[in-house]
Amino acid sequence: MNFxxxxxxxxKLLSLFLILIALHSFLVGLGLILIPLESFGYFGFEGYQGxxxxxxxxxxHIVMCGAYIPAAINPEKNKLLLGFxxxxxxxxxxxxxxxxxxxxxxxxxxxxGIMDLVMGLLLLWxxxxxxxxxxxx
Length: 137
Hints:
Layout: H1 8-34, H2 52-73, H3 79-102, H4 107-135
């Protein structure tokens, strides 16, 4: 896919959306790291012990910013990171929604799965629109 002639308005919207995804990921990561385990009950998580996995999840979310930000800064140069971002959002949505349906219905897991699905669908939409605008140019 060649983004050289991509619609500049669409490119700006994609960049803004990826920055918002990166901000979301950073804040979720920071929250996972900093929010005390005792407060996780407010989010539907009851009876969890130990902090390793919540901190690991927080670090993972912050690391994901390393894909979203370069893709936002230059989508033309970082097409693979855009594809990876789409893959990451759909993988997260499938995991979270499956977990919620099969293992444990935690309201925050359900909301997170739905939000990742929406973000993935929007990224896919941007990707297809941009590919279509290149073909028609």
